[in-house]
Amino acid sequence: MTPHGNHPDHDLEWHERLQDWLDGDLEGPERAALERHLASCAHCQDTLEHLQDLDRELQSALPKPALDETFDARLFARIDEIDDQRSAARARAQAQAESELATLAGQWRRTLQAVVPSIVATVAVVIALASSLADIVGMPGVQWLQALGARGEDATGVDVASFLPFVVLAAFAAAASYVVARWLTPLAES
Questions:
Q1: How many CB atoms lie within 10 A of CB 119?
Q2: 46-63: b (≥16 Cβ within 10 Å) or e
């Protein structure tokens, strides 16, 4: 394309807009302004004609893209392959989740199998210790605890005798349960 006359400022202003108009990239007020200018400017009309000729030459020189006959079959086969891979991955993830849940359930069962007997054993040990301690201090049963509670009431003014045996036995039971559970847990895991 050769410049028509000596219009460098004019070319700078309108040449790119002409190409955008040809490409369909101008809209609204910009498109209307270019079309008004084009109706009255012979230079831009010539430039537009040259740009249109260039577009036609380029389109005729380029090979037309075409898909071969097997394209659809290959595309759908690839989509099916990807779907199969996703289904297999989903099945593996589901199987792994089920396996982990089964393992977790087994661990809970083993833990409960260790903790419940340890609590029962601890309560038995605490009762035996309380009876032995009562015999050692010369008081039958839990009377020694009641005597201790009476001393606490004298010192604090609060009747602790009614709940002191429970507190002492609970403390012994908790400590003993912890020790027995720590001892039995490795045995249950093996």
A1: 15
A2: ebbeebeeeeeeeeeeee
Asked if residue 18 lies in contact with residue 51, where contact means CB atoms within 8 angstroms, the answer is yes
Cα 5 from chain centre: 67
User: What's the maximum distance between 2 C-alpha atoms anywhere in the chain?
Assistant: 129
Residue 63 is given by DSSP the state P
- Judged by DSSP in three states, 160 sits in coil
What beta strand segments (E) does the chain contain?
none
Among 112, 107, 172, 178, smallest CA distance to 142 is for 172
Query: Pick from 109, 142, 128: which is nearest to 173 by CA?
Result: 128
Per 3-state DSSP, the chain is made up of helix, strand and coil in percentages (nearest 5) of 80, 0, 20
Confidence of residue 79 (pLDDT cuts 50, 70, 90): very high
**Which has more pLDDT, 142 or 52?**
52
CB atoms within 10 A of CB 44: 22
pLDDT tens readout for residues 98-138: 999 888 877 777 777 767 777 777 767 766 666 666 555 55
